[in-house]
Protein backbone atom coordinates (compact mmCIF):
# COMPACT_ATOMS: atom_id res chain seq x y z
CA UNK A 1 0.00 0.00 0.00
CA UNK A 2 1.19 3.50 -0.79
CA UNK A 3 2.32 5.52 2.21
CA UNK A 4 0.10 8.47 3.17
CA UNK A 5 2.46 11.29 2.30
CA UNK A 6 1.31 14.92 2.24
CA UNK A 7 2.32 16.68 0.06
CA UNK A 8 2.30 13.95 -2.57
CA UNK A 9 5.83 13.47 -3.93
CA UNK A 10 6.74 13.73 -7.60
CA UNK A 11 7.48 10.02 -7.92
CA UNK A 12 7.10 7.14 -5.53
CA UNK A 13 7.80 3.47 -6.02
CA UNK A 14 6.56 1.24 -3.20
CA UNK A 15 8.66 -1.81 -2.37
CA UNK A 16 7.77 -5.01 -0.53
CA UNK A 17 8.91 -5.29 3.01
CA UNK A 18 9.87 -3.04 5.83
CA UNK A 19 12.87 -1.90 7.78
CA UNK A 20 12.86 -1.65 11.57
CA UNK A 21 14.90 0.97 13.39
CA UNK A 22 15.95 -0.44 16.75
CA UNK A 23 18.67 0.08 19.33
CA UNK A 24 21.33 -0.96 16.83
CA UNK A 25 20.40 1.71 14.30
CA UNK A 26 23.14 4.18 13.40
CA UNK A 27 23.01 7.57 11.73
CA UNK A 28 25.37 9.66 9.61
CA UNK A 29 24.68 13.09 8.19
CA UNK A 30 26.59 16.21 7.23
CA UNK A 31 26.51 18.85 9.97
CA UNK A 32 23.65 21.26 9.47
CA UNK A 33 20.00 21.91 10.25
CA UNK A 34 18.81 18.71 8.51
CA UNK A 35 21.00 16.48 10.68
CA UNK A 36 20.24 18.39 13.86
CA UNK A 37 16.52 18.22 13.21
CA UNK A 38 16.44 14.52 12.36
CA UNK A 39 18.60 13.56 15.33
CA UNK A 40 16.38 15.52 17.72
CA UNK A 41 13.21 14.03 16.24
CA UNK A 42 14.44 10.44 16.33
CA UNK A 43 15.90 10.52 19.81
CA UNK A 44 12.95 12.39 21.33
CA UNK A 45 10.31 9.94 20.12
CA UNK A 46 12.23 6.67 20.13
CA UNK A 47 14.56 7.14 23.07
CA UNK A 48 17.17 5.29 20.97
CA UNK A 49 20.72 6.61 20.76
CA UNK A 50 21.39 6.59 16.96
CA UNK A 51 25.19 6.69 17.26
CA UNK A 52 27.54 7.03 14.30
CA UNK A 53 28.42 3.67 12.70
CA UNK A 54 31.74 1.92 13.31
CA UNK A 55 34.30 3.20 10.80
CA UNK A 56 34.02 1.31 7.54
CA UNK A 57 30.49 0.07 8.13
CA UNK A 58 27.41 1.60 6.49
CA UNK A 59 24.95 3.59 8.59
CA UNK A 60 21.34 2.48 9.01
CA UNK A 61 20.22 6.01 8.20
CA UNK A 62 22.54 7.97 5.91
CA UNK A 63 22.06 11.54 4.74
CA UNK A 64 24.41 12.66 1.98
CA UNK A 65 24.90 15.73 -0.18
CA UNK A 66 25.75 13.77 -3.30
CA UNK A 67 22.36 14.24 -4.98
CA UNK A 68 22.60 15.59 -8.53
CA UNK A 69 22.36 19.39 -8.99
CA UNK A 70 19.26 18.77 -11.10
CA UNK A 71 17.40 18.21 -7.81
CA UNK A 72 17.63 21.95 -7.23
CA UNK A 73 17.70 23.58 -3.82
CA UNK A 74 14.84 21.63 -2.26
CA UNK A 75 14.65 18.37 -4.19
CA UNK A 76 15.75 15.05 -2.77
CA UNK A 77 15.91 11.30 -3.25
CA UNK A 78 14.80 8.97 -0.49
CA UNK A 79 15.28 5.25 -0.40
CA UNK A 80 14.24 2.72 2.21
CA UNK A 81 15.47 -0.80 1.49
CA UNK A 82 16.93 -3.82 3.21
CA UNK A 83 20.29 -2.13 3.58
CA UNK A 84 18.93 0.96 5.31
CA UNK A 85 17.60 4.43 4.72
CA UNK A 86 19.34 6.75 2.29
CA UNK A 87 18.47 10.43 1.87
CA UNK A 88 20.29 12.29 -0.89
CA UNK A 89 20.07 15.90 -1.93
CA UNK A 90 22.19 18.62 -3.47
CA UNK A 91 21.77 20.95 -0.48
CA UNK A 92 21.14 20.65 3.23
CA UNK A 93 17.76 22.25 2.61
CA UNK A 94 16.91 19.39 0.25
CA UNK A 95 17.91 16.93 2.99
CA UNK A 96 15.68 18.82 5.39
CA UNK A 97 12.65 18.39 3.11
CA UNK A 98 13.56 14.70 2.77
CA UNK A 99 13.61 14.38 6.56
CA UNK A 100 9.98 15.55 6.62
CA UNK A 101 9.08 12.74 4.22
CA UNK A 102 10.98 10.19 6.28
CA UNK A 103 9.08 11.43 9.30
CA UNK A 104 5.75 10.69 7.61
CA UNK A 105 6.94 7.19 6.71
CA UNK A 106 7.49 6.40 10.39
CA UNK A 107 4.58 5.47 12.70
CA UNK A 108 2.51 8.40 14.10
CA UNK A 109 4.22 8.08 17.49
CA UNK A 110 7.27 9.71 15.90
CA UNK A 111 5.39 12.97 16.58
CA UNK A 112 5.21 12.38 20.29
CA UNK A 113 7.26 14.62 22.58
CA UNK A 114 8.05 11.64 24.82
CA UNK A 115 9.64 8.28 23.95
CA UNK A 116 7.54 5.25 23.16
CA UNK A 117 8.38 1.65 22.42
CA UNK A 118 7.86 1.40 18.68
CA UNK A 119 8.33 -0.79 16.66
CA UNK A 120 9.84 1.90 14.42
CA UNK A 121 9.02 0.46 11.07
CA UNK A 122 9.60 2.04 7.68
CA UNK A 123 8.09 0.65 4.48
CA UNK A 124 10.50 -0.06 1.63
CA UNK A 125 10.05 2.73 -0.84
CA UNK A 126 11.88 4.90 -3.35
CA UNK A 127 10.92 8.58 -3.61
CA UNK A 128 12.09 11.30 -5.95
CA UNK A 129 10.73 14.70 -5.10
CA UNK A 130 10.92 18.46 -5.45
CA UNK A 131 8.55 21.41 -5.08
CA UNK A 132 6.23 22.91 -7.64
CA UNK A 133 6.55 26.42 -6.15
CA UNK A 134 9.41 28.25 -4.48
CA UNK A 135 7.03 30.17 -2.16
CA UNK A 136 5.02 27.95 0.13
CA UNK A 137 3.84 30.24 2.84
CA UNK A 138 1.72 30.61 5.91
CA UNK A 139 0.86 33.91 7.55
CA UNK A 140 0.10 34.50 11.20
CA UNK A 141 -1.66 37.70 12.27
CA UNK A 142 -0.14 38.58 15.64
CA UNK A 143 -1.72 42.05 15.53
CA UNK A 144 -5.43 41.33 16.03
CA UNK A 145 -4.52 39.01 18.87
CA UNK A 146 -0.96 38.62 20.05
CA UNK A 147 0.77 35.25 20.00
CA UNK A 148 4.01 35.01 21.96
CA UNK A 149 7.32 33.39 21.02
CA UNK A 150 6.29 29.97 22.33
CA UNK A 151 3.06 30.08 20.35
CA UNK A 152 4.86 31.13 17.19
CA UNK A 153 7.34 28.28 17.64
CA UNK A 154 4.40 25.91 18.02
CA UNK A 155 2.94 27.34 14.82
CA UNK A 156 6.26 26.74 13.06
CA UNK A 157 6.33 23.16 14.37
CA UNK A 158 2.94 22.57 12.78
CA UNK A 159 3.84 23.79 9.30
CA UNK A 160 7.34 22.31 8.97
CA UNK A 161 6.21 18.68 8.44
CA UNK A 162 4.20 19.85 5.43
CA UNK A 163 7.24 21.43 3.76
CA UNK A 164 6.22 25.10 4.04
CA UNK A 165 9.18 27.44 3.62
CA UNK A 166 7.84 30.98 4.25
CA UNK A 167 6.53 32.38 7.52
CA UNK A 168 4.84 35.72 6.95
CA UNK A 169 4.24 37.60 10.21
CA UNK A 170 1.59 40.33 10.14
CA UNK A 171 3.21 42.54 12.78
CA UNK A 172 1.10 45.68 12.78
CA UNK A 173 -2.51 46.63 12.34
CA UNK A 174 -5.12 49.00 13.73
CA UNK A 175 -5.40 46.95 16.91
CA UNK A 176 -1.72 46.68 17.76
CA UNK A 177 1.93 47.18 16.88
CA UNK A 178 3.82 44.02 17.83
CA UNK A 179 7.53 44.59 17.25
CA UNK A 180 9.81 46.71 19.39
CA UNK A 181 11.43 49.52 17.40
CA UNK A 182 14.51 51.06 18.97
CA UNK A 183 13.78 54.50 17.56
CA UNK A 184 10.09 54.59 18.47
CA UNK A 185 9.46 53.14 21.93
CA UNK A 186 5.84 54.29 22.12
CA UNK A 187 4.90 51.91 19.32
CA UNK A 188 5.13 49.09 21.83
CA UNK A 189 4.83 50.96 25.16
CA UNK A 190 1.48 52.29 24.01
CA UNK A 191 0.61 50.80 20.62
CA UNK A 192 0.90 47.17 21.70
CA UNK A 193 -1.22 47.35 24.83
CA UNK A 194 -4.48 46.23 23.33
CA UNK A 195 -5.98 43.81 20.79
CA UNK A 196 -9.38 42.97 19.30
CA UNK A 197 -11.80 43.16 22.21
CA UNK A 198 -9.36 45.01 24.48
CA UNK A 199 -6.21 44.31 26.51
CA UNK A 200 -3.95 42.51 26.96
CA UNK A 201 -1.98 43.02 23.80
CA UNK A 202 1.68 42.13 23.66
CA UNK A 203 4.75 42.53 21.52
CA UNK A 204 8.03 40.95 20.52
CA UNK A 205 11.22 42.53 21.77
CA UNK A 206 13.90 42.61 19.10
CA UNK A 207 15.52 39.64 20.84
CA UNK A 208 12.21 37.76 20.71
CA UNK A 209 12.00 38.46 17.02
CA UNK A 210 15.58 37.26 16.49
CA UNK A 211 14.74 34.09 18.40
CA UNK A 212 11.80 33.43 16.06
CA UNK A 213 13.92 34.14 12.99
CA UNK A 214 16.61 31.74 14.23
CA UNK A 215 14.10 29.00 15.09
CA UNK A 216 12.56 29.40 11.64
CA UNK A 217 15.96 29.40 9.91
CA UNK A 218 16.93 26.13 11.61
CA UNK A 219 13.86 24.74 9.85
CA UNK A 220 14.46 26.39 6.47
CA UNK A 221 11.56 28.78 6.88
CA UNK A 222 12.15 32.34 5.71
CA UNK A 223 10.51 34.96 7.90
CA UNK A 224 8.77 37.68 5.88
CA UNK A 225 7.78 40.47 8.29
CA UNK A 226 4.90 42.77 7.38
CA UNK A 227 4.38 46.33 8.50
CA UNK A 228 1.04 47.22 6.93
CA UNK A 229 0.82 50.75 5.45
CA UNK A 230 -0.76 53.21 4.68
CA UNK A 231 -4.02 51.76 6.09
CA UNK A 232 -4.32 49.41 9.09
CA UNK A 233 -2.23 51.93 11.03
CA UNK A 234 -4.34 53.14 13.96
CA UNK A 235 -1.99 51.70 16.61
CA UNK A 236 1.02 53.47 15.07
CA UNK A 237 -0.88 56.76 14.73
CA UNK A 238 -2.12 56.58 18.30
CA UNK A 239 1.47 56.07 19.45
CA UNK A 240 2.86 58.89 17.30
CA UNK A 241 0.08 61.33 16.37
CA UNK A 242 2.37 63.16 13.91
CA UNK A 243 1.70 60.17 11.64
CA UNK A 244 -1.97 61.09 11.41
CA UNK A 245 -4.16 63.94 10.25
CA UNK A 246 -6.62 63.09 13.05
CA UNK A 247 -6.66 65.25 16.23
CA UNK A 248 -5.86 62.62 18.86
CA UNK A 249 -5.97 59.13 17.38
CA UNK A 250 -7.15 56.54 19.87
CA UNK A 251 -6.29 52.89 20.16
CA UNK A 252 -8.76 50.61 18.42
CA UNK A 253 -10.28 47.34 19.64
CA UNK A 254 -12.90 46.60 16.99
CA UNK A 255 -12.78 44.53 13.82
CA UNK A 256 -13.60 47.06 11.12
CA UNK A 257 -11.06 47.70 8.37
CA UNK A 258 -10.29 50.59 6.06
CA UNK A 259 -10.72 53.59 8.39
CA UNK A 260 -7.13 54.51 9.20
CA UNK A 261 -4.66 56.30 7.00
CA UNK A 262 -1.14 57.65 7.54
CA UNK A 263 -0.57 61.32 6.77
CA UNK A 264 0.30 60.95 3.09
CA UNK A 265 1.57 64.48 2.42
CA UNK A 266 3.95 64.89 5.31
CA UNK A 267 7.68 64.21 5.06
CA UNK A 268 7.76 63.04 8.68
CA UNK A 269 5.65 60.02 7.67
CA UNK A 270 8.35 58.89 5.27
CA UNK A 271 11.16 59.62 7.72
CA UNK A 272 9.33 57.34 10.16
CA UNK A 273 8.88 54.61 7.55
CA UNK A 274 12.51 54.92 6.50
CA UNK A 275 13.53 54.24 10.10
CA UNK A 276 11.03 51.41 10.55
CA UNK A 277 11.91 49.59 7.33
CA UNK A 278 15.58 50.20 8.10
CA UNK A 279 15.32 48.52 11.49
CA UNK A 280 13.13 45.80 10.09
CA UNK A 281 15.51 44.97 7.30
CA UNK A 282 18.44 44.87 9.72
CA UNK A 283 16.50 42.36 11.84
CA UNK A 284 15.51 40.24 8.84
CA UNK A 285 18.06 37.96 7.17
CA UNK A 286 15.52 36.86 4.53
CA UNK A 287 15.27 38.71 1.25
CA UNK A 288 11.70 40.02 1.58
CA UNK A 289 9.84 42.79 3.40
CA UNK A 290 6.04 43.01 3.22
CA UNK A 291 4.61 46.53 3.18
CA UNK A 292 0.92 45.61 3.31
CA UNK A 293 -0.93 48.12 1.19
CA UNK A 294 -4.33 46.41 1.50
CA UNK A 295 -7.72 47.95 2.13
CA UNK A 296 -6.54 51.56 2.16
CA UNK A 297 -10.18 52.52 1.80
CA UNK A 298 -9.73 55.99 3.28
CA UNK A 299 -6.96 56.86 0.85
CA UNK A 300 -7.73 58.25 -2.62
CA UNK A 301 -6.15 56.44 -5.58
CA UNK A 302 -3.95 59.48 -6.22
CA UNK A 303 -2.72 59.58 -2.63
CA UNK A 304 -2.17 55.83 -2.65
CA UNK A 305 -0.01 56.09 -5.77
CA UNK A 306 1.96 58.96 -4.26
CA UNK A 307 2.45 57.06 -1.01
CA UNK A 308 3.69 53.91 -2.74
CA UNK A 309 6.06 55.88 -4.95
CA UNK A 310 7.76 57.11 -1.78
CA UNK A 311 7.68 53.88 0.22
CA UNK A 312 8.72 51.32 -2.40
CA UNK A 313 12.26 52.77 -2.70
CA UNK A 314 12.75 52.58 1.07
CA UNK A 315 12.61 48.80 0.83
CA UNK A 316 14.47 48.50 -2.46
CA UNK A 317 17.36 50.64 -1.19
CA UNK A 318 18.00 48.05 1.48
CA UNK A 319 18.35 45.25 -0.98
CA UNK A 320 15.06 43.63 -0.05
CA UNK A 321 12.36 42.49 -2.42
CA UNK A 322 8.99 44.12 -1.80
CA UNK A 323 5.96 42.01 -1.06
CA UNK A 324 2.56 43.74 -0.94
CA UNK A 325 -1.09 42.82 -1.02
CA UNK A 326 -2.64 42.89 -4.47
CA UNK A 327 -3.95 46.48 -4.20
CA UNK A 328 -0.37 47.67 -4.72
CA UNK A 329 -0.64 46.48 -8.34
CA UNK A 330 -1.97 49.95 -9.14
CA UNK A 331 1.15 51.69 -7.84
CA UNK A 332 3.44 53.33 -10.36
CA UNK A 333 7.03 52.14 -10.57
CA UNK A 334 6.73 48.70 -9.04
CA UNK A 335 10.29 47.42 -8.64
CA UNK A 336 11.47 44.38 -10.57
CA UNK A 337 10.78 41.13 -8.78
CA UNK A 338 8.00 42.62 -6.65
CA UNK A 339 5.71 39.95 -5.22
CA UNK A 340 2.00 40.79 -5.11
CA UNK A 341 -0.20 38.77 -2.84
CA UNK A 342 -3.53 37.92 -4.42
CA UNK A 343 -6.18 37.66 -1.74
CA UNK A 344 -9.59 38.42 -3.28
CA UNK A 345 -11.93 35.42 -3.68
CA UNK A 346 -11.67 33.37 -6.89
CA UNK A 347 -15.30 34.25 -7.67
CA UNK A 348 -14.37 37.89 -8.33
CA UNK A 349 -12.99 39.31 -11.55
CA UNK A 350 -9.26 39.85 -11.55
CA UNK A 351 -8.57 43.61 -11.42
CA UNK A 352 -7.06 44.95 -14.66
CA UNK A 353 -4.24 46.58 -12.70
CA UNK A 354 -3.18 43.19 -11.36
CA UNK A 355 -3.20 41.56 -14.78
CA UNK A 356 -1.15 44.49 -16.09
CA UNK A 357 1.34 44.32 -13.20
CA UNK A 358 1.76 40.59 -13.74
CA UNK A 359 2.40 41.19 -17.47
CA UNK A 360 5.01 43.75 -16.50
CA UNK A 361 6.83 41.17 -14.38
CA UNK A 362 5.31 41.18 -10.90
CA UNK A 363 5.23 37.69 -9.39
CA UNK A 364 2.09 36.52 -7.67
CA UNK A 365 1.69 34.82 -4.32
CA UNK A 366 -1.71 33.17 -4.40
CA UNK A 367 -3.88 33.51 -1.28
CA UNK A 368 -7.45 33.60 -2.61
CA UNK A 369 -9.69 34.09 0.40
CA UNK A 370 -12.33 31.53 -0.57
CA UNK A 371 -9.59 28.86 -0.78
CA UNK A 372 -6.78 29.48 1.65
CA UNK A 373 -7.96 32.10 4.15
CA UNK A 374 -7.74 29.74 7.07
CA UNK A 375 -9.58 32.22 9.30
CA UNK A 376 -12.79 31.57 7.34
CA UNK A 377 -15.33 29.22 8.89
CA UNK A 378 -15.41 25.66 7.60
CA UNK A 379 -19.20 25.58 7.69
CA UNK A 380 -22.05 27.76 8.91
CA UNK A 381 -21.89 26.25 12.38
CA UNK A 382 -18.13 26.65 12.91
CA UNK A 383 -17.80 28.65 16.13
CA UNK A 384 -14.51 30.38 15.37
CA UNK A 385 -13.65 32.38 12.31
CA UNK A 386 -15.17 34.88 9.92
CA UNK A 387 -17.12 34.21 6.78
CA UNK A 388 -16.91 37.30 4.62
CA UNK A 389 -15.43 35.12 1.85
CA UNK A 390 -18.00 32.38 2.46
CA UNK A 391 -17.35 29.13 4.23
CA UNK A 392 -14.15 27.32 3.21
CA UNK A 393 -14.41 23.56 3.46
CA UNK A 394 -11.44 21.22 3.62
CA UNK A 395 -12.11 20.12 0.08
CA UNK A 396 -12.37 23.70 -1.20
CA UNK A 397 -8.99 24.67 0.22
CA UNK A 398 -7.41 21.67 -1.49
CA UNK A 399 -9.13 21.53 -4.87
CA UNK A 400 -8.02 24.60 -6.81
CA UNK A 401 -5.36 25.63 -9.27
CA UNK A 402 -3.09 28.61 -8.52
CA UNK A 403 -2.35 28.96 -12.24
CA UNK A 404 -5.98 29.38 -13.24
CA UNK A 405 -6.60 32.76 -11.63
CA UNK A 406 -4.47 35.19 -13.61
CA UNK A 407 -3.65 33.63 -16.97
CA UNK A 408 -0.09 34.22 -18.08
CA UNK A 409 1.10 35.46 -14.70
CA UNK A 410 4.22 34.11 -13.04
CA UNK A 411 3.06 32.39 -9.88
CA UNK A 412 5.73 32.48 -7.17
CA UNK A 413 3.65 30.24 -4.98
CA UNK A 414 0.85 29.87 -2.51
CA UNK A 415 0.31 31.26 0.97
CA UNK A 416 -2.35 30.55 3.57
CA UNK A 417 -3.05 33.53 5.85
CA UNK A 418 -4.39 33.01 9.35
CA UNK A 419 -6.06 36.21 10.52
CA UNK A 420 -6.87 36.27 14.20
CA UNK A 421 -9.82 38.58 14.86
CA UNK A 422 -11.68 35.63 16.42
CA UNK A 423 -8.71 33.50 17.48
CA UNK A 424 -7.26 33.84 20.97
CA UNK A 425 -5.21 30.76 21.77
CA UNK A 426 -2.89 28.25 20.10
CA UNK A 427 -5.75 25.73 20.33
CA UNK A 428 -7.89 28.14 18.30
CA UNK A 429 -5.15 28.33 15.68
CA UNK A 430 -4.98 24.52 15.52
CA UNK A 431 -8.73 24.35 14.96
CA UNK A 432 -8.51 26.54 11.88
CA UNK A 433 -5.26 25.03 10.54
CA UNK A 434 -6.23 21.38 10.71
CA UNK A 435 -7.30 19.70 8.53
CA UNK A 436 -6.98 22.44 5.89
CA UNK A 437 -3.27 23.21 6.15
CA UNK A 438 -2.02 19.91 4.64
CA UNK A 439 -4.20 20.46 1.56
CA UNK A 440 -2.70 23.90 1.01
CA UNK A 441 0.74 22.32 1.36
CA UNK A 442 -0.15 19.85 -1.37
CA UNK A 443 -1.31 22.62 -3.71
CA UNK A 444 1.93 24.53 -3.07
CA UNK A 445 4.39 21.63 -3.31
CA UNK A 446 2.93 18.96 -5.50
CA UNK A 447 2.51 19.29 -9.25
CA UNK A 448 0.45 16.09 -9.36
CA UNK A 449 -3.19 16.66 -10.29
CA UNK A 450 -5.44 17.03 -7.26
CA UNK A 451 -7.19 13.81 -6.28
CA UNK A 452 -9.66 14.46 -3.51
CA UNK A 453 -10.35 10.84 -2.54
CA UNK A 454 -6.67 10.14 -2.24
CA UNK A 455 -6.10 13.34 -0.24
CA UNK A 456 -9.00 12.59 2.11
CA UNK A 457 -7.54 9.14 2.78
CA UNK A 458 -4.14 10.64 3.54
CA UNK A 459 -5.70 13.22 5.84
CA UNK A 460 -7.52 10.55 7.80
CA UNK A 461 -4.22 8.78 8.34
CA UNK A 462 -2.66 12.03 9.55
CA UNK A 463 -5.10 12.58 12.40
CA UNK A 464 -3.12 10.09 14.48
CA UNK A 465 0.00 12.17 13.84
CA UNK A 466 -1.70 15.37 14.97
CA UNK A 467 -2.92 13.66 18.10
CA UNK A 468 0.53 12.29 18.89
CA UNK A 469 1.88 15.83 18.47
CA UNK A 470 -0.67 17.18 20.94
CA UNK A 471 -2.90 18.82 18.34
CA UNK A 472 -6.22 17.98 19.87
CA UNK A 473 -8.49 20.76 18.67
CA UNK A 474 -8.40 20.03 14.95
CA UNK A 475 -11.79 20.39 13.29
CA UNK A 476 -13.59 17.05 13.06
CA UNK A 477 -14.52 17.68 9.45
CA UNK A 478 -17.22 15.48 7.92
CA UNK A 479 -14.70 14.79 5.15
CA UNK A 480 -12.52 13.02 7.70
CA UNK A 481 -15.13 10.65 9.01
CA UNK A 482 -16.94 9.76 5.77
CA UNK A 483 -15.60 6.80 3.90
C1 LIG B 1 -9.04 40.99 4.94
S1 LIG B 1 -6.93 40.33 3.30
C2 LIG B 1 -7.90 41.61 5.41
C3 LIG B 1 -7.58 41.55 6.83
C4 LIG B 1 -8.63 40.82 7.62
C5 LIG B 1 -9.11 39.63 6.86
C6 LIG B 1 -10.08 38.79 7.62
C7 LIG B 1 -6.33 41.52 3.68
C8 LIG B 1 -5.15 41.80 2.92
N1 LIG B 1 -6.93 42.19 4.64
O1 LIG B 1 -7.38 42.84 7.33
O2 LIG B 1 -8.05 40.42 8.82
O3 LIG B 1 -9.69 40.05 5.66
O4 LIG B 1 -10.42 37.65 6.91
What does this structure look like?
The protein is of the alpha/beta class and 483 residues long. It has 2 domains: 11-129, Chitobiase/beta-hexosaminidase domain 2-like (Chitobiase, domain 2), CATH 3.30.379; 135-449 and 462-480, Glycosidases (TIM Barrel), CATH 3.20.20.80. 31% of the residues lie in helices and 19% in strands. The protein has 15 helices and 16 strands. It has helices at 33-46, 92-105, 149-159, 186-189, 206-217, 234-239, 267-283, 301-316, 352-359, 369-372, 394-398, 426-433, 437-445, 452-468, 478-481; strands spanning 11-21, 27-28, 61-64, 76-81, 84-89, 120-129, 135-141, 166-170, 172-173, 176-177, 222-229, 288-292, 321-325, 339-342, 363-366, 410-418. The strands form 3 sheets. It has an 8-stranded parallel β-barrel, surrounded by 6 helices. A hairpin with a 2-residue loop joins strand 4 and strand 5. Helix 1 packs parallel to helix 2, helix 3 (149-159) packs parallel to helix 5 (206-217) and helix 7 (267-283) packs parallel to helix 8 (301-316). It is globular, with a radius of gyration of 23 Å. The mean pLDDT is 97. The chain binds ligand TNX. Ligand TNX binds at residues 257, 294-295, 325, 343, 373, 375, 386, 419, 421.
Amino acid sequence: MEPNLIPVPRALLPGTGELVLDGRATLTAPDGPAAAFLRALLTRATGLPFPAPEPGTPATVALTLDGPPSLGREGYLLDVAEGGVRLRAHTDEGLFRAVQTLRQLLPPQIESPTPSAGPWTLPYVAVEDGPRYAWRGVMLDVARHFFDVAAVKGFIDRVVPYKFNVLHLHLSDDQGWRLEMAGYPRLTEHGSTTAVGGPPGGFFTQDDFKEIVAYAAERYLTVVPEIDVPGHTQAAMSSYPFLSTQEAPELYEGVEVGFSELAIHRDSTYAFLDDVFGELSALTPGGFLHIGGDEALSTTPEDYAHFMSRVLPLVGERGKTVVAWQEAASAPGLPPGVHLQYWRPTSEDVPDALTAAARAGAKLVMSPADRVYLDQKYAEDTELGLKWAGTVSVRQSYEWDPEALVPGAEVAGVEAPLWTETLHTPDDLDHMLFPRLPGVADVAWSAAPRDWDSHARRLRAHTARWEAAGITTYYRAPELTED
